[in-house]
Write a structure and sequence with these properties.
By secondary structure, this protein is α+β, with helices and mostly antiparallel strands. The protein has three helices and seven strands.
Length: 177
């Protein structure tokens, strides 16, 4: 039998259809849908039929290929990363939450910590927005309806815009363009 690459589709007499997920010198590791498990099968097993062959193991990725791909991904992600600066008047500040009942202890939080949490909420809302927009099974009407909830959430968070140094990072509800 010819050497199979990762992703090759095969038919096994007992396990049914499978996909090669790993290759070694003498064996293939094949994932079989019928058993939902991976099995180690000898490369010279006579009852293994090739349904669709991909490149051979010798055509696999080299360390240089992997390093280049990793470098590309990291470079791309670093360009996407934005440092969101807090307005300087809040540096080293403290948020104090004081209950009306004086017998209860107030809660103090460094503003930098609070600001970081606000930025994380904003980033997660943006991620949800992206997932909604790219969802294949939602209709346009459903996407618009979900978008309205996100826009309303942004509007509810505009109180915290005083913490942001740059207006580009601030929350905008449906009332602002």
């Amino acid at each position: 039998m010819e050497s199979l690459g990762i992703g090759s589709r095969v038919q096994h007499l007992h396990y049914g259809k499978g996909v090669v997920v790993e290759t070694a010198s003498e064996f293939y590791t094949i994932w079989f849908k019928t058993t939902n498990t991976a099995k180690t099968i000898a490369k010279d097993y006579a009852e293994l039929t090739v349904l669709e062959q991909t490149g051979t193991a010798s055509e696999g990725l080299s360390l240089a290929d992997i390093e280049q791909a990793l470098d590309n991904v990291l470079t791309q992600r670093l360009h996407e990363f934005q440092l969101v600066p807090m307005a300087t008047k809040w540096n080293d500040g403290t948020l104090i939450m004081k209950p009306a009942d004086d017998s209860l202890q107030p809660k103090e939080v460094p503003i930098e910590v609070f600001f970081h949490k606000i930025v994380m909420v904003r980033d997660r809302l943006r991620l949800i927005e992206q997932k909604i927009n790219s969802h294949r099974q939602l209709t346009d009407a459903e996407k618009i309806e979900l978008q309205q909830y996100i826009t309303a959430s942004y509007g509810s968070l505009t109180t915290f815009n005083v913490l942001f140094r740059e207006t580009i990072h601030q929350f905008k509800g449906s009332g602002k363009e």
